[in-house]
Amino acid sequence: MTLFDIAAILLCLSAVFGYVNHHYLRLPPTIGLMVIAMASSLAVVVIDLIVPAMQVGPRVSEALAQIDFHKALMHGMLSFLLFAGALHVDFSALASRKWAISLMATGGVLMSTFIVGASMWYVLQLFGIAIPFMWALVFGALISPTDPVAVLGILKTIKVPKRLEAIIAGESLFNDGVGVVIFTIVLALALRGEQATLELAGVVGLFVSEALGGVVLGMVVGYLAYRALRTIDEYILEVIISLALVMVTYAIALRAHLSGPIAVVVAGLFIGNHGVRFAMSEKTRERLFDFWELIDEILNSVLFLLIGLEVMLLRFDTGYLAAALLAIPIALAARLISVSIPILLLSRRDKFTQGAVPVLVWGGLRGGISVALAFSLPENEIKPLILAITYSVVVFSIVVQGLTVKAVVAKMVQPATDT
Question: What's the whole-model pTM score?
Fold first, then answer.
């Protein structure tokens, strides 16, 4: 199939499944799409068992194999989704919670990586599944960042105090970029084998250069776009400039080995706050936000559809089942620790919303980024295991946590507070 054929099929399925969900399931759109896609994948498996001669499963799997999920998300869709999300985030609210966001998006991700990695390494040994410790850390690195696409999508459906919302949104926007950098470093060490020596200075230098380089790139390119927007009042051209900004920023980041996600988020925050206030007319603001909201909804639909369909490419060994199920509470426990410690440290100098910790833990959804990173792993005997446990955490996170986070917020957060 050509790229156009694949795109046509994905958009058609998104429309059909979205229609079914809207009329019958009435779940949040992205969750509904993923649930229906997973159900369709299971239906294909059942058909193959009943009528193997039809070869439905192999044909569908062959078509899905033509889609490189990692490249489709990490080198394409993610840049647009992050920019669209950052456009709507109030920078002043982020600044008021900068220390909490910074600690959770850096130290919290690192902490979670080691907690999840060490715990899963020990659990897998108990089940007779021996993997090198560095490969357990690879899983910890890819599952630790919360997914900004899933988190920002949920924030649209629930009401939380503004300062708590700023922490949730800010952390999700930045920790994926940090998480990708950590994943890249840990994977490189894992591929070098047990003989690898951990050169701390080199690792720290790479981490800082990628993360801070992404911030600088986002600010520079965002400022250049802002200067261009100030000199015109033509909404079509201004929308095109914003589109070019996203693509050029991400392309430069990939070429320069900087954090593309962080660069795009910074550029989006710059345009969504400073640019909207000082460089756009009311008509342009409306058109710009409408355009990016549409892009966000379309790509979200396709992304969650793919997450559900890609289940068919898993080579699931029943021996992994217990470990996959145990990965869920391990990931949640690591999230609890990595959120609680920064808030405990900062609570001496700042006030946090009552119930902030349980909301941040339960609302820290994992999603497409974790799946994409798992699919990007080189083909070896460990990859099927990591894919299986990654999918178990992601599906639980999106379906169970995503559908119940509203109830958690209602129970844990005082409705009267706005801090």
Answer: 0.90
- Characterise 238 by phi-psi region: left (phi > 0), alpha (psi -120 to 50), beta (else): alpha
Q: What b-and-e string marks burial along 270-288, b requiring 16 or more CB atoms within 10 Å of the CB? A: bbbbebbeebbeeebbebb
Distances (CA, A) of 177 to 243, 261, 267, 317, 384: 20, 5, 14, 31, 25
Kindly report the backbone phi and psi dihedral angles of residue 418, in degrees, each rounded to the nearest multiple of 5, phi listed first. -130, 25
Digit-coded pLDDT (tens) for 161-194:
888 888 999 999 898 888 888 998 899 888 876 4
Q: Quick check: 82 and 369 in contact, CB under 8 A?
A: no
């250049």: which residue's tokens? Answer: 224
Q: What CATH topology corresponds to 72-412?
A: Na+/H+ antiporter like fold (1.20.1530)
Measure the CA–CA gap between 407 and 312, rounded to whole angstroms.
32
Structural domain boundaries in the chain: 3-65, 72-412
| CB 101 within 8 Å of CB 167 | yes
What is d(CA 343, CA 97) in angstroms, rounded to the nearest whole number? 11
The owner of tokens 């062959």 is 62
**Chain segment 195-213, per-residue pLDDT in tens:** 445 555 566 677 778 888 9
223-255 burial: b if 16+ Cβ within 10 Å, else e: eebbebbeeeeebeebbebbeebbeebbeebee
Nearest-angstrom CA–CA distance, 33 and 343 = 35
How far apart CA 2 and CA 7 sit, in angstroms, is 9
375: left (phi over 0), alpha (psi -120 to 50) or beta: alpha
